[in-house]
Amino acid sequence: MSQDQPVFRVLLRMQIHAGMEEEFERTWYQVGKAVTDHPANLGQWLAKSQEEGVYFIMSDWTDEPRFREFEHSDGHLEHRTKLHPFRSGGTMDTMNVVYAMGGKG
């Protein structure tokens, strides 16, 4: 990533119904190509919080307009429909990455 080509990042916090965590993880992985196959997507990650039933989904995009295009697409609606039964709540934050620094490991 270069500074003149900022990354648009989306961070979702999802609360998953108790007892549905493993099925949610499998389903997220199975339907993930709906996101990563979009030409403007730079990658996505699923992280499990130490807080019970909480997950974070982070995805990086070339820019906000291309993300919003995806967000309103039929592909995204289908993706959301498959994950919705697992959710008991959640939030979405969006941001522009200012700097990125890689580690040595």
Task: Please characterize this protein's 3D structure.
Residues 8-95 form the ABM domain. It holds the Pfam family ABM. This is Antibiotic biosynthesis monooxygenase. One of its GO terms (molecular function) is monooxygenase activity. Keywords: Monooxygenase, Oxidoreductase. By secondary structure, the protein is an alpha+beta fold. It has a single domain (17-96), classed as Alpha-Beta Plaits (2-Layer Sandwich). It is 31% helix and 33% strand. It is built from 4 helices and 4 strands, in the order E-H-H-E-E-H-H-E. It has a 4-stranded antiparallel β-sheet with strand order 2-3-1-4. The longest helix is centred in the N-terminal third of the chain and has 11 residues, at 21-31. The protein is globular, with a radius of gyration of 14 Å. The model has no long low-confidence stretch (mean pLDDT 93).
In the sheet with the most strands, the strands line up as: 2-3-1-4
The number of helical elements comes to 4
Distance between the termini: 18 Å
The run of helices and strands is EHHEEHHE
* Main beta-sheet strand count, sense and barrel state: 4 strands, antiparallel
User: What is the oligomer described by this structure?
Assistant: single chain
Strand content: 25-35%
CATH topology: Alpha-Beta Plaits
Mean pLDDT: 93
Name of the CATH architecture: 2-Layer Sandwich
The number of strands is 4
Pfam families: ABM
InterPro entries: ABM_dom, Dimeric_a/b-barrel
Keywords: Monooxygenase, Oxidoreductase
Domain ABM: 8-95
